[in-house]
Amino acid sequence: MGLLNPADPGFSLMGVVNVTPDSFSDGGRFLDADAAIAHGRRLAREGADVLDVGGESTRPKGKVYGEGALPVSEDEELRRVLPVVERLAASGATVSIDTVKPGVARAALEAGARVVNDVSAFRSAPEMAGVVAEAGADCCLMHMLGDPRTMQADPRYDDVVSDVKAFLEERVAFAVSEGVPEERILLDPGIGFGKTLEHNLELLRRLDELVAIGRPVVVGTSRKSFLGAITGREVGQRLPGTIATNVLALERGATVFRVHEVSPVRDALKVALATVRPGWRATTTT
Ligand code: HH2
Question: 41-82 pLDDT, tens per residue?
């Protein structure tokens, strides 16, 4: 099952494979390629439809995470992600590359990745659109206010949902104008990227307004700090909050869920989907 299978009425899980020393929730755990590959394989066995491999953290600067992620050179990012992409793709997994650098995306696509997850939605490097178009790849375009070092400073919106929606619509138009077929585009509100707690909750509450754009909506709430702000839990103890937000997002029409823990989220979403879409359960095998 890929990310954009129109015959599949269910949901897709994107398992996070961070090959970084400084990711906010699992920094340093999978910096070694073998460890990252083993982790990716485990997520695939647990039911991840796509493995999202990233070599540069987007950890925000601010009171929760301190100084924030430092930029990584293209060479270093390639050194981190390429062996992981290559071997996971060779093992049969659908791989997505989480990068804002066209050079990294191009090399990852050549190594077998099929999706480009660009948290800057082609703003960091507009030529990323051409890379995606040329490879015939899928892409995820995400909303972010500013960049990881500035985004949590004092994020403000007229109306967060309308503003994010207008941004995503404009990014779709740009991608299409650069030759990316609309059917290859997924959209993501960018939970935690230049948003206060209230902004995140409002985006989740009114997610159906983003679903109305007509493209699959990806949601990434996994372990994020707004869950900690509500529950008081440390990063490793945010699975219940992650599940609650993903179930709500599914009910409001999101279809792709980016998570660190695949198996428990998958179970929760299967039950949620069987409830909100009677009949779906009969079409599943497990
Ligand atoms: N969140 C993170 C990274 N990439 N991509 C999309 N499309 N949506 C998200 O919500 C999203 C993303 C941040 O999470 P993580 O990868 O765990 O942390 P870090 O960026 O610190 O590596």
Answer: 999 999 999 999 999 998 876 655 566 777 899 999 999 999
- Give me ligand 1 centre to Cα 58, in Å: 6
Quote the ligand 1 centre to 220 CA distance (angstroms).
7
Burial letters 231-265, b for 16+ CB under 10 A, else e? eeeebeebbebbbbbbbbbbebebbbbbbbbbbeb
Q: What is the pLDDT of residues 87-111, one digit of tens each?
A: 999 999 999 999 999 999 999 999 9
Q: HSE on the CB side for 106, CA within 13 Å?
A: 11
How far is Cα 216 from Cα 182, in angstroms, rounded to an integer?
11
Note the pTM of the prediction, 2 decimals.
Answer: 0.94
Residue nearest atom 9 in ligand 1 by C-alpha distance: 220
d(CA 203, CA 132): 27
Q: Does any ligand 1 atom lie closer than 6 A to the CB of residue 25?
A: yes
Atom of ligand 1 minimally distant from the CA of 58: 20
Closest CA to 43 of 2, 1, 88, 11: 88
